[in-house]
Amino acid sequence: MALRAPQRCFNIVGSSSSLSRTWSSTLVIHHRCYAQSATAQKTKDKNAVASSAPPSTSRKAGKASTPQKAAQDSTAVERSAEDDLRNIEALQRMTETNEVDVSSAPWSLWVYVHVPSWRSHQPDASLGDHFRTFWQAQRNWVFNARSLYRMAKSRSIPGVKVKSPWSWQLFSTQSTKPTAWLGPFRQAALEVYKQINEAVAARDEKTVKALTAGEQQVAYMKLVRSQDPRFINVWKFHGERTPCRVVSIRALEAYYGAKPPRVGSRLAIQAVVRFDTLQSVESYSKKTGARVGETEPKTVTEYLVFQKRMWYDSPWVIRDRLYEGLESRFTIPQSF
Question: Which of 310, 317, 319, 301 is nearest to 188 (CA)?
C-alpha cells in the first residue's frame, strides 16, 4: 500500500522561503504531510474493515482478526506517526534555540598540558633527554601565549576586561603579580583549592562532586569514603609558602552550536596551577567532640589541572593531578 502526500504540501515547501531556509523546517513539513496522509489512509482502511464480512475462524485460516483488533492496530499506527512528528518538531526547536548542548559531554585531558621543566628528571638522563625536556618547556611557553591570545580575543579571561589581545601580557602566564591577566583566576583557583580540601576532610560529597570532575573526582571520593566515621576531621590552611601560579594553560573552541552561546564564549580552558602551601589536619571525636589528634603544619606542593567551559556560569573544577618530572601522556591537538 503506497502512501502519497498531497501535492499542496510540496507546493508549500517550494513557495515558502521562510520555511525552506533550513533542512529541519522542510523535514517537519514533509513529515506532517506524511502523517496526515497516513492518518487518512488508515481511517479508510478502518472503515473498510468495519463494513466487511466477519473473518474466517476456521483452523485452516489461522488466527481470526476481529474488527475491534484491526481498529486498535490502526489507532496505534496513527499515534506512532503523531509521536514521530512531535519528535521532529522538538528537534527543530532544539537546533534553533540551542537547547541541546552536545558540547557538555564529559571530556578528558585532550588539551596538551604538562608541568614544564628545564632539565630531565629521568635517572641517567642523556643530553638528548635534557634537550627534549628543554624543548618541551619552550613549546609550552608558546602554547601559553597562543591560548592567552585566544582568551583575550574572545573576552574569556576571568575577571579582566582586555582592551586589545596584543599585549606584553601574552607572555605573563606564570606571573604572580596581581596586575597580570591571570591574577583573578589564580585567586579563584586558590579558593577552590581550599574549599575542596575542607570538603574532603569534612566528608562533604556534594561539594566534592560540584568542584571536581573526571579522575580527580574519583580520587577525592575515595579519600572521603576511606575516613573513619567515628571522627570528624578539619583541614587547616596555614598560608602559602610561595604564591600559586599557572604553569601551563590551553584554550580551544569546544562549543559546537550553530549559534554563539548566550553566555561567555566558545572556549574550553584547562590550566595547570602549582600550589605550595602549609596545611594540617585536626581530628575530633564524633561522640564527645574532644580533639583526639593533630598534625604539624607540613609543606604540600601540588600541580592540579583546572578546567571550565566558558559558556557556562559555573565554578572552575579540578580535573586531574600532574607531577613534576613525569613525561606528558597527552598528544598535541590538531588545532595547535
Answer: 317
The Cα 105–Cα 180 span in angstroms is 32
Q: Supply 262's cell numbers.
A: 548566550
* 12-45 burial: b if 16+ Cβ within 10 Å, else e: bbeeeeeeeeeebbbebbebbbbbebbeebbeeb
Q: What is the pLDDT of residues 159-187, one digit of tens each?
A: 777 777 788 888 888 899 988 989 899 99
Alpha carbons 262 and 228: distance in angstroms, whole number: 46
- pLDDT, tens only, 122-138: 788 788 888 888 888 88
Backbone angles phi, psi at 242, to 5 degrees: -135, 150
| Torsion, CA 247, CA 252, CA 254, CA 260, rounded to 10 | 120
Three-state DSSP state, 256? coil
Query: CB under 8 Å to 148, separation ≥6 — which residues?
Result: 157, 169, 170, 172, 173, 181, 182, 249, 251
Q: Which residues pair with 281 in a beta bridge?
A: 235
- Residue 35 and residue 82 in contact, taking contact as beta carbons nearer than 8 Å: yes
Residue 270 bridge partners (DSSP): 250, 307
C-alpha–C-alpha distance, residues 14 and 26, integer Å: 9
The C-alpha angle with vertex 28 and arms to 25 and 33, in degrees rounded to 5, equals: 130
Report d(CA 107, CA 83) in Å as an integer.
Answer: 33
Give the whole-angstrom CA distance, residue 89 versus residue 303. 48
